[in-house]
Amino acid sequence: MARSGGSRSRASLTSLVLLAALALIAVLLVIYALRSPVTANGGEDPGPAPTWTRGALSQTTAPPTGTPATQLKPAVMFLNGPGGSGFRVQAGSCGGAAARMESTSDGGDSWAGVNFGPVAPSEILDVEVPSDDVVNVVARVGAACDLTMLTSFTGGEFWQAYPARVVEGTYVDPSSPTNISIRGQTIAGPCSDPRAIQARLSQTYVMCDEGLFLLPSPEGAWAQVDGIPMSAFSVDRDSGTIVKARVRASGCVGVDVQFPSGSASTGAVSESCQIEATDIGSSVGIAISGPNIWVWSGGSFRHSADAGVTWERGD
User: How many other CB atoms are found less than 10 A from the CB of residue 106?
Assistant: First the structure.
């Protein structure tokens, strides 16, 4: 009986040693797994993980910044004198989003869509407002995107197409975007990608990624008048005063409006940060007439009646 008890004791001791060895092996395997790098994508090391700091995320890849000024599409705005009437336009594109034109008669406090009726444009290339009643729009219409002049003699209430009058407009040639059509003449533009255009008397202003250019007359030569990229510009048709809108520039996270300060002969420029960054849409528009300045982006509209000294919301 004593010999049999000793055998059982030795068997129990052997089992305990075996269990301890297995436990040690399991612990070693866990430690090895924790110390080994985790890989994905077929065994390729994905690189260092992002590191966190208080209130911010630091990664090996920098986060995207705001949309540069040159990537925003300029919108067309026309302030028709001191009466508070005007238009704003989303140009649209043939085969893409349709053009949209809106009008206001209360200084931008409210806007209403312009109904072109059966001659609704797919793309708007040029807008000119020579008087309170007359509005001329160079546009592409119909499934074939035919080029025509749309004219209203009722301030935008009723419209008629006049294809032969396209030669009266100033616009970027849709068939050759590096060319500018000025009153029926085709002239090589100042850059490879003209982004906005405005005519004043015999002058033609064109905005490019490289800045703003002026053609004093169809027989003249292009001259750069501003070498800083901008999102939109406008020229007062009476005084020739230029205002510009830039997005996320000069310390302004929204829309930075630049306008002359004091006498035009001094060349001084004032700036006013308008429209919050969160309200910036895919395009920016600006307009000037006398002391009145309008700026618009997304669903936000700002206007000044004293040459930029004070501003009011209109949205």
Answer: 11
